[in-house]
């Protein structure tokens, strides 16, 4: 008599997420390095100067933008990394289906994005300390999270969702590349050609620029990320393992 | 109940046909040997059964379900081969510790005891292991899952003699304690013969023979005698293999039949074959042997 273990998709996905979080925890080091680089690059990110009579005023603005750009690049490469053969095959040494693997990857990337978004936001405080000690100029602080908690939280949320969307871009590129090299380059050419046309620029303006509030932008970005992950899942459904 | 039910399964890679009309059933709680020459299609068949690759046509059912992308099949089956990978960021100990979350019947005690017996280093990474140690670790992992369908693809590749013997012993002991369906592929049938109940012989992507071990042994016999006599005895028979022993004598292997008694009376030297020999002759490409190459 056979006794088959019944296992639900949810429980497999949860086990996979837990497993992946511990297996990929080394990525934290890359994140920290990039955040530190972001702080170092932030000094004098943009500056402007005016002079009235004999007094010249030089304004240096330091922001976490450079840090965020570095972390975004990391998000793209991590999204791409976990679609590579070695990472994919690891899943199938345990219980997995292609659907459960994709959902788990998507959740793991979201969790990483949360971590990266929150910590990157708070590097601004580290940067301020750094600037206070290292700058000979008069130092004017921007608002802190306590001054405007709602807006700050929304900014953090926006950073998280943007990082997640960037990781989804890396993810779909990786999935395409794994599936069919030709398909990947074909898609790349089509995207570049679309980017050169006016309509595409207009579409991205509508999506990313013309928003009445940050929350709408976040919602739109979230939707795009979900769409990209779903497409990747559909594409990877016929990928063989250990071939 | 059938654990595996394959009907006319086909699978091809770009130019070659890896599997052609594979049809067989496997009932539960048996150790079956999947035997075949190099490139016969053993690995391809196992990968399809484990749901790792997709077959082209035909019907594959494992526990009554198509294994490709099926959670029930994945949770109750495992394929152990030398291509198994585990994340490098985890030590062997951590890998074993994360397994019970996936495999409900995971036997922690067995895993730990085998791990200690084979003296593996718990802090080691999977990819840094030597070929033999990796095979040993994969074997421990596969056995400990206690999956209802446990498949091994050339599990002893790279293992030394002592570890091989221990592995077969461990497999048998664990099977007796926890009966389940085990499919083990090998091209060294003589080595695993004592474990097997059934043999599934495949050749060039086709099932040649699926029978229990005794039937396989009885399937063919070898006969030796003067050339003219051997030719007479085997006339019209399906000769699987024949070779000249010396100037006068001929050696031939053919399917067992009623004519055998007459040959025996006429002074033929009839030899029983081992299952391994039967399988070898049934899958040999030519009537001659390697000697013919050097003629």
From TrEMBL, chain A:
Q: Which of UniProt's keywords are assigned here?
A: Membrane, Transmembrane, Transmembrane helix
Per the UniProt record, which residue ranges are transmembrane? Answer: 21-41, 61-82, 103-131, 151-173, 182-201, 213-235
* Highest taxon, organism lineage: Bacteria
Q: Any idea what this protein is called?
A: Uncharacterized protein
Q: What species is this protein from? A: Psychrobacillus psychrotolerans
UniProtKB/TrEMBL annotation, chain B:
Tell me the ranges covered by the ABC transporter domain, including all copies.
4-229
Recorded hits in PANTHER family, A to Z, give:
ABC TRANSPORTER ATP-BINDING PROTEIN ALBC-RELATED
The protein's name in its UniProt record: ABC-2 type transport system ATP-binding protein
Which controlled-vocabulary keywords does the entry list?
A: ATP-binding, Nucleotide-binding, Transport
- Is the keyword Transport in the record? yes
Q: Which domain of life is it from?
A: Bacteria
Q: Gene3D superfamilies of this UniProt entry?
A: P-loop containing nucleotide triphosphate hydrolases (3.40.50.300)
Q: Which SUPFAM superfamilies match?
A: P-loop containing nucleoside triphosphate hydrolases
Q: Name one GO molecular function term.
A: ATP binding
The answer to keyword Transport applying to this record is yes
Instruction: One Pfam family, please name it.
Output: ABC_tran
Task: Please give the InterPro entries that the UniProt record associates with this protein.
Answer: ABC_transporter-like_ATP-bd, ABC_Transporter_VariousFunc, P-loop_NTPase
């Amino acid at each position: 008599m056979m006794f088959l273990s019944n296992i639900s998709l949810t429980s497999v996905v949860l086990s996979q997420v837990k497993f992946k979080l511990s297996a990929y925890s080394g990525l934290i080091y890359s994140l920290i390095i990039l955040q530190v680089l972001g702080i170092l690059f932030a000094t004098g990110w943009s500056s402007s100067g005016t002079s009235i009579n004999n007094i010249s005023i030089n304004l240096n603005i330091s922001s976490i933008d450079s840090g965020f750009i570095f972390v975004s690049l990391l998000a793209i490469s991590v999204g791409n990394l976990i679609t590579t053969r070695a990472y994919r095959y690891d899943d199938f040494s345990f219980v997995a289906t292609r659907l459960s693997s994709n959902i788990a990857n998507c959740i793991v990337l979201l969790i990483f994005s949360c971590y990266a978004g929150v910590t990157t936001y708070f590097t601004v405080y580290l940067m301020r300390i750094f600037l206070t000690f290292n700058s000979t100029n008069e130092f004017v602080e921007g608002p802190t999270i306590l001054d405007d908690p709602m807006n700050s939280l929304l900014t953090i949320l926006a950073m998280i969702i943007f990082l997640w969307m960037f990781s989804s871009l890396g993810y779909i590129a990786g999935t395409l590349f794994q599936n069919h090299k030709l398909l990947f380059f074909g898609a790349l050419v089509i995207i570049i050609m679309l980017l050169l046309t006016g309509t595409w620029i207009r579409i991205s303006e509508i999506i990313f620029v013309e928003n009445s509030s940050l929350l709408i932008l976040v919602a739109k970005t979230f939707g795009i990320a979900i769409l990209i992950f779903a497409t990747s899942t559909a594409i990877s459904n016929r990928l063989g393992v250990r071939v | 109940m059938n654990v595996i039910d394959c009907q006319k399964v086909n699978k091809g890679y770009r130019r070659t046909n890896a599997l052609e009309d594979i049809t067989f059933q496997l009932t539960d709680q048996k150790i079956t040997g999947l035997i075949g020459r190099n490139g016969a299609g053993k690995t391809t068949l196992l990968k399809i059964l484990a749901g790792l690759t997709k077959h082209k046509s035909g019907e594959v059912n494992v526990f009554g379900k198509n294994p490709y992308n099926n959670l029930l099949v994945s949770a109750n089956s495992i394929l152990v081969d030398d291509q198994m990978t585990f994340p490098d960021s985890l030590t062997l100990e951590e890998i074993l510790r994360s397994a019970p979350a996936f495999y409900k019947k995971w036997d922690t005690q067995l895993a730990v005891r085998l791990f200690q017996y084979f003296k593996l280093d718990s802090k080691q990474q999977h990819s840094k292991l030597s070929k033999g140690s990796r095979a040993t670790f994969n074997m421990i992992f596969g056995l400990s899952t206690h999956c209802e369908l446990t498949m091994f693809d050339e599990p002893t590749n790279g293992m030394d003699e002592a570890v091989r013997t221990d592995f077969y012993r461990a497999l048998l002991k664990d099977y007796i304690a926890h009966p389940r369906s085990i499919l083990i592929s090998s091209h060294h049938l003589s080595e695993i013969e004592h474990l097997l109940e059934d043999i599934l012989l495949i050749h060039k992507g086709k099932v040649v023979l699926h029978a229990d071990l005794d039937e396989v042994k009885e399937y063919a016999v070898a006969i030796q005698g003067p050339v003219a006599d051997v030719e007479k005895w085997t006339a019209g028979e399906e000769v699987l293999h024949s070779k000249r022993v010396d100037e006068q004598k001929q050696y031939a292997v053919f399917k067992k039949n009623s004519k055998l008694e007459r040959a025996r009376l006429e002074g033929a030297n009839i030899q029983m074959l081992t299952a391994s020999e039967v399988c070898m002759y049934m899958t040999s490409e030519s009537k001659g042997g390697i000697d013919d190459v050097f003629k």
